[in-house]
Design a protein that fits this description.
Elements: E1 2-7, E2 19-30, E3 33-42, E4 45-54, H1 61-76
Antiparallel strand pairs: 1-2, 2-3, 3-4
């Protein structure tokens, strides 16, 4: 799924100064977990936001946040 959102750079919207935000969303299911990945392109900069949901429902919210932090730390090292 691809969306395009237009926002204004100034208080009063002017189409000539609008910034386009392109967003692409992908979903994956692996090992009982749903991963939602949002890729944004804003002003020629790319951003990726991942959300991971345990489909078994055995983990708490705190466990999910810890898993996200651990995953990002592994990627950084």
């Amino acid at each position: 799924m691809i969306d395009e959102i237009r926002i204004s750079n100034e208080k009063d919207y002017q189409p000539s100064v609008a910034v386009a935000i392109n967003r692409r969303t992908m979903f994956r299911i692996n090992d009982g977990k749903l991963t939602s990945q949002h890729q944004y392109s804003i002003d020629k900069k790319d951003y990726i936001v991942n959300s991971i949901f345990d489909l078994d429902g055995k983990q708490s919210i705190a466990d999910g946040v810890k898993h996200l932090i651990d995953t990002e730390l592994e990627k950084a090292s």
